[in-house]
Amino acid sequence: MHPKLWQEVQLRLKQQHGMVSRAQLVALGVGEADVRARIARGEWESVGRRVVRAGGAPGTPIQAIWAAYLAAGPEAVVSHGSAAWLWRLVPSPGMPAVTVPVGASTRLAGVAVHRSRCMCYHPVLRAGLPCTDPMRTLEDLALVLAPSELDEAIDRGLSSALVSVRTLEAHIDATGGRGRSGAARLLAALRRRGFVSAPPASVLEGRFVRLLAAARLHPVGVEVEAGPDGCYRIDFQLSPILFVEVDGYAYHHSPEQKAGDERRRNRLRLEGRMLLVYSWRDVVGDGARVVNEIRQALAAERAAG
After folding, report:
1. How is the chain split among helix, strand and coil, in percent rounded to 5?
2. So what's the pLDDT on residue 99?
3. Domain boundaries along the sequence of the chain
4. Whole-number pLDDT of residue 249
5. Are 9 and 1 in contact (CB under 8 A)?
6. 184 CB burial (10 A radius; 0-12, 13-18, 19+)
7. Low pLDDT (below 50) residues in the chain
8. CATH superfamily assigned to domain 201-304
């Protein structure tokens, strides 16, 4: 093999984690006889019928994903669990997964091959691989993950700012009408998590007041100043030391907001205040538990004298 050609092959192997397709080798000008000879000498290893690997290259998850993508062909995109792992939405990649257009005859051993009528989105390069973007990836995950696993993936996407509730809702609005069941399941997950149409803070506070009134519990203060020089405001005070905050997701979802909330709450607890925190989902969907916990906290305060 000519030295310049060998350099090009080596560069391709380096860029693709030690993997190269036979179609790529042919396009570079490497003959099939040369490929077979290098496999026979142990310089390269055959991975299925369509891909070869540099001999001795350590097996890694991303290498397996590269092999799946190269074997699936140029119309494929990395998707589902593989894309989710590359986006750090799931802790492990599982079986390599790709999506190809409906009608493609691609069948690969050890690879989850999905088919889609809609390949109209623009794949995003991740570790050099064309992947579904984070929103489409979450939509695809909704079809293959258990609800608890999907919830965790959504949380990872939100906390890392890969997606936002607003962009997910826009994605669902744009794709849900095309009969894609993944979009419907993703919307159901957002609703289950209390992330869809998060109400203004005043609406959540109003629901909480009504919940207290129905349980014959009455706050002794609202928007109470606390902390050094009264620099904090706490939503409700129910006793001399018991305070409650209700968080609307729209106002307390970013990592920065969450970190600020926790610093403030830790300070209040260090000052001897008992602080309970509830979300929209808690107040609306699990009100009995909220009331029971408040009553337990009041009883504990009375018992402590």
Report:
1. 50, 15, 30
2. 92
3. 78-109+119-197, 201-304
4. 47
5. yes
6. middle
7. 198, 249-252
8. VSR Endonuclease (3.40.960.10)
